[in-house]
Design a protein that fits this description.
Number of strands: 11
Distance between the termini: 56 Å
Structural class: mainly beta
Strand order of the largest sheet: 2-1-11-10-9-6
Largest sheet: 6 strands, antiparallel
Order of helices and strands: HEEEEEEEEEEE
Helix content: 10-25%
């Protein structure tokens, strides 16, 4: 009887500890670069990390969209390709970067989007976007394991 009870307790213990998981693949952004999602910093590459509620990359248009919790677009990044490479940003042309969190919108005049990986229906990389003027003039960020559609 003791052996049966001990075996039952061992099985219950094993089941209860294996039911917990540390899921680093959520698409909620986050403060560290290994968590899936879209993050950005305003004006300071070492400043406060902000995160989008969701992000997707559409391969048909080579467009990365990051959204707020209400579903409205926060960032739209249009690129000339989706391969691992550095893409130079301009205010018009094939590689454009728009942030809608500013009024008027932040449209990058220069900068770079670097795709470091596009595999297994996930895309990752980083960016830095710049414009002239007052207020918000620089954005820095990452996109990690963003789903590719």
């Amino acid at each position: 009887m003791k052996k049966v009870l001990l075996l039952c307790m061992a099985v219950i213990s094993l089941i209860s500890t294996s039911a917990c998981s540390d899921d680093d693949n959520s698409n909620n952004g986050g403060g560290n670069n290994t968590t899936a999602g879209f993050t950005w910093r305003e004006n300071d590459p070492n400043g406060t990390i902000n995160q989008a509620a969701s992000a997707t990359f559409t391969s048909q248009f080579n467009t990365l969209i990051a959204k707020k919790a209400d579903g409205s677009t926060l960032f739209e990044i249009n690129l000339s390709g989706s391969s691992a490479a550095a893409y130079t940003l301009t205010s018009s042309g094939a590689n454009m970067f728009t942030y809608t969190g500013e009024n008027p919108f932040f449209v990058a005049e220069s900068g770079t989007v670097t795709i470091t990986s596009n595999a297994n229906n996930k895309i990752s990389g980083s960016y830095e976007a710049f414009r002239t003027g007052n207020g918000l003039t620089r954005l820095y960020g990452t996109f990690t394991d963003v789903p590719v559609n």
